[in-house]
Every structure is written in C-alpha cells, then in structure tokens.
Amino acid sequence: MTEEFWQRIEEYRRLGFDPLRWIATGSNEIDIWTLDLAVKEMKRSSIKLDTNWFDAFHYAEGKTPDLTRRVFSICDPAVENEVELKHALAMFRVHKEIENDSTLFTGILNNFFKNFRCKVSINKSAFAVTEHKDAQFALLDYIGLHRGDKVGFTVADNATAHVIDPTLEPDSEIHTDIPMTRCIDHLNLLGCTSGFDLYPIYDSPQESSLDIIGKNLDAFTSRYNLKMDDYSSLKIGKLFFGATGIANTFKELPTSYDQLEETMQIIITNPLGSLMALSLYTLAQIDEKIISTLENKGINDQALVSAKDECIKNLSEPHFSLGKIISKYCPGFGASFQKDENIVAAHPLGSDGILGLWKLARTSNCHLVVNDIPMMFEEIARLASSESLVANPTAAMNGCHAIVATKDISNLILGELQRHNFRATVIGFVASKGEPNVTFGNNAKDHFAANIGLSILNKIAGK
Fold first, then answer.
1. What CATH number did the domain enclosing 363 receive?
2. Are residues 283 and 414 in the same domain?
3. Burial 26-57 (b: 16+ CB within 10 A, else e)
4. How confident is the model over 353-365, as pLDDT tens digits?
C-alpha cells in the first residue's frame, strides 16, 4: 500500500471518476439483471428501451449511417434537443444509489423519458455507475439510415471503460483504448469485417487532459487505420471514457438464437477468469496482505505483473481476426441459414464471465450443460475464488465469447480460432429447448468455488 497509489486514487476522485468500483464485479456498470427489472417496469412512452447487447440495421451499399449526438441532464433533460430519428443508442452515467434498487432505477428512467415527444427505439444501452451525482448524464446517439440497395448489415455498439488500471495516469492512452476496443470486440463477434467507424465519448474537467485524450484517440485509430468522428467532449466536467462504434458485414448475423437444438456444441473462444490478473494486481496495491497470500500460493509478484500486463494488452488491442472467422461461417446476406454449415449463434461473455451463459440460455430459451470451465491465469483465479476477493472470478477480458454450432463444423471453427491464437475449446452442449437454464458439472463448479459467486448463480436461477 504505497502513498503514490493513494495519491493517484485521490486524483481520479477529484476529476469525478471512481477508479476502484469495477474490481468486485469486473465492471463499473449496472448488471443486466437490475437493468432488465427496471426496464420491464417502465411506463409506456414514445421511447422503446431494450437491453440487447448490440443493434443492427440494413446496410445500403456505400452509405454510412449518419450519427447525431445529444447529451442530456438525467434529472432535467432539455427535450427540445431531441432528434426526429427512429433509432438510437443510449449511454447513461447514473448515481450508485440505483445500483441495487430497480424500483428507484425505473423511476429515474420514467422521469427522464416522460417528456420526449418523438418515437425512438433504443435496442442497445450502457449504464455506467458513479459516486458523484454531478457526474451523471444521458447520451443518445441517433442513427440516421439511408435508402438504397440493401447488401448487408451495419452493426452498432457502445461501451464504457468498464475497467481501468488505477496505477496509471487518469489520461493514460489505455483508458481511451479500452472502450473502443470493447466496441470493436462485439462488432467482430457479429462477423463485421469493414466500415469500422468510432465515435468516442469522453470528458475531463482539465483542458490539458482533454488535449491528451484527443491525441490518444488519434493514436489508436491511426494504429489500426480506423475512421473516427470526434464530437468533442461531453462538457459535463467530470472524467469519463466511452465510445460508440459501427461496422459492416455482408453476411447474415450469427444470432439465430431460436435455431438452437439439442446436442449442438458450445464453444468458448478463450478461457474465462482472465480479468482476475488486473483485479488482484489492483487489490494488492490496496492491501499488502494479498501479496503475502499470493506468495503463499506460489504466485510471485513478477508473475502477477506479467499477467496484469497481458490483461491490459488484451483490453486495448482489437481482435480483427475474430470478425473474419465468424464471417466465414455465416451465410451470405439474404441466403438461408444452414445449421450444418453456419454458426448458429454467438454471444459475448467478457466481464460477465460464466454469467453470460445465463444470458445466452435466456435469449435462446434453452437448457445449456457446461462440463468444464477453462480458466486463464488459473491459480490467480482460484485464489480470487477461494478467498472470496471478488464476486465473479470468471470475469474475462475481450475475445472471450460463446459460439454455438453443430458437431459437423465445431472442429473447423475451433481450428480456425486456434490458428489465430485463440485458446478455444468446447465447454458443453445444448441439452433441451423450452426452459432457460444452465447446469454445471462438478469440475466446473470447482472453478467457481467462492460462496458469493455461487450465490449469484443461485439467485439468477431462482433457487
């Protein structure tokens, strides 16, 4: 526990940012279960708010959708600034008081949307949490589509810097890279291979930091030859990092959740638990006893730092090869889905870790059986679990997703992923349709041994 570390933490807090909130759950965002409850109880209005993990529109050849951004106060939105377009992505930063109170959350959503006049569908939204009431905001990125020959899909996603490295400077390039990489990760999972366009979402109370953030954004997009449209800072005056991203695919999307059938295999693209290296590294800065606990388990400081660095690299470097692999196993745009040739469904896991499989089960209305849970940095993850240091020891970095396919092509998909340095494996299968559920083999439960973690699973399962 160093004085320098705590000085850095205080610097973040002075800038209106909460640098440690993500550690316990692997994300500084409202969990999907709380969000779902809040949205279901919303009063009907001109706004249709859904909780999908992406949005998609038909792509008119050569025509990129127009994005119009509006930033609102959550408590008193200036609705005269709303835009007469039918689609939007939303990003909210909300106070922590609603984090475990879906009734209060619903009230805030109802109050925010009640005066909007124009009908708009919001299929993808992100909700960051803050301890600072004056750091709250709501942002709508309205999507304007063009007429023309439909040749594919434009996919859209948005993301916050759900985790950070608080040992780095607040305006470190890593922190602007993380949300943009996270957007790209989901776009790749949907088979996007072209037309990547990023719209950063950021803010700071310091002009010097805004200048550095701008240079960081330019460096990232130049490094990967990506288009970026910078709408300038939010002008809320509190540190924030996020992004909206779009990209195109000329294939059908790998989201045929209603086509899941018994015996289909569940592939995981990379092991779970990989976020634990960054979590435990940060916890070790807070509590020196954790260093001793790590050493007693045979994990020396050098090994932890090396694992943490690998984690940070993964969080800030896109996996464009994933998009090419997914696209290869999707039918051409307008073509019929062939279950013995195409990926049936893809679904992100990421910081949800194993809990993401419950989302997949619910979305597909299927019972999934998981025989094994491959873990990255396994000893670190086991320590996080056995000591109950975090709620979800299976939380993962980018590039960790579930893919469902028949046995006929699962080996082909595994081979493709492994040739591109993914540590892919089959972890289970679809047991039946008609009842959303996930069950685990005994060896799988060993990887998720923390009582607090198992209580989450039981809560979701309704036990």
1. 3.90.650.10
2. yes
3. bbbbbbbbbbeebbeebeebebbbebebbbbb
4. 988 999 999 999 9
